[in-house]
Each structure stands twice: as structure tokens, then as C-alpha cells.
Amino acid sequence: MAVSSVTWGRSTGGKRGKLGATVGGRRGQERAESPLIKVGRLLRQHGRNVLGVVALVILVLGGVSGLRWVIHRPYFQIRHAVITGDLHQVDRALVAKAAERVQGSFFSVDLAAAASELKAIPWIRAVHLRRVWPDALEVQVEEQNPVAYWGDDALLNEHGEPFEADYLGELPHFVGPREAGQDMIQAWQHFNQWVKPLGRRVDGVELSARGAWTLSLDDGTQWRVGRDQVDNRVQRFVQVYPELHKAGVIPPGGKVDLRYANGFAISGAGGSAEE
Questions:
Q1: Which of 138, 205, 217, 231 has the least C-beta neighbours within 10 A?
Q2: For the chain, what is the domain count?
Q3: CB 254 within 8 A of CB 267
Q4: Highest-scoring range by mean pLDDT, 13-27, 49-63, 137-151, 251-265
């Protein structure tokens, strides 16, 4: 029966041999070699290399075990939270309670999961977490800053993002496509610049799905501006507004349609006016 063996070291000719396989002949010619003899021969031939590999394996395994032991020591468990941020609407007590529920150590705490839980607190727009050695978290909170009411049951922040929270303050009211929040903020600021010299204020802005604008002023009047030549239409009406207002042509709660090419129509005043 043929037997395969693997040899290292020098060949029978005295020269360094290559790693290879030798197939022998009869069983009686085979030379038996015990495992202990093989280990001894390997250590004599490759002593430094073998011992080096063994030492490296022991060091790595010991290092991993030691690291696990350190990570799970109570000394590094998260025990404190430092809450920062200019907060007016956010309840700091709720943030503190949520921070107390954070599990893990300085090394193992899941910052993304903790931030997600904290962000669910009303009035929080964003949360940034940072580890503080050896057992604390810094919780930096960015609060929502409302600039308008949005639709029937939401607010709009300064970035044009709708969010839900309880609020009773005085704000303009916007109605429009969800993705148009930032454009509506800019339009509201722009329209207010036009009506401010008249002693008026834009309290509401509506943008239809087709891009048509409607303004609600603080005196209850409503201006239907449309979607074309918006600035020209508003400017034209602003120029004649003082005379119309003085004459009582524009009643409180009246509606003004600015979508005419050469004039405008006023409802609720018993007539219309054109250029």
C-alpha cells in the first residue's frame, strides 16, 4: 500500500529540499516515526519560527480576552449625561430620562440607537452624541424653531421641514405641497416686503399644486395672485392700494383677484376696479 508523507528541511543529497510529497514502496521499508519525534525534529529545524508563531497566537488570544474583560468592567458603564443646547420648548427632564435608559459602556454604547430614541422627544430636530471618558455621554440637542403653522395640524421649521408639536404662539399659516416649505418661507418674506409700506402684514400663504399663490393679510383680505407675473401683479396693486383703502373700496375680509392682465377685481365691496 502506498503511503504519502510531507517533508521539510534538507534532502538526502545534503542540499535544501523543496516542500513535496514522496510515495514509498513496501510497508517493511517504511520507517515509523512517533508524533513526539516529529515535534522534536520540527523544533530543531524551525525552532525560532514555530515558537514565534505560538507566542503570537497566545498574545493575540490573551489580548482579545483582556480587551473583552476591560470593556465589560463596571467602571466604564455609562452613568452620566451632559445635556447641551439652547432649549426653550424641549423638556430637559424627558431628555435626561431618555439618556438614563442608554445601555452599554464607554466602548460598547450604540450612539445611533440612543440618538434615535432621543430624537423621538417632541421639539427635538436633531441629536448629536459624544462619548466623554470614562463613563459619560454629551448630548447636544438641536431644537425645532417654528416659523409657521403648516396645514391643519403641523408646524414648519426654519429649514422648511414640517413637524408635529403643541404650540399656541402667533405664527403665519402656510398651506402647500410638503416639499415646498422652504420656497414658501422665502415667498412669505418677499411678499411681506411689498405690503409692509402699506402698514399690512401677510398672515397666510397658500401655494396650489399648480403653483398659484394666494395671500391672506392681517386685515382679513385675501389676494389671489396666481402663478404668472407674480411680482408685477403685486406691485401694481400695491401702488393703488392707499387710494382704494382710503376710499373704502377694500373692505375687511374682502377678496382681491390680481390675475387680470390690466386690472383686478374686488369682491365684497360692491364693485370692481380696473386700470
A1: 231
A2: 3
A3: yes
A4: 137-151
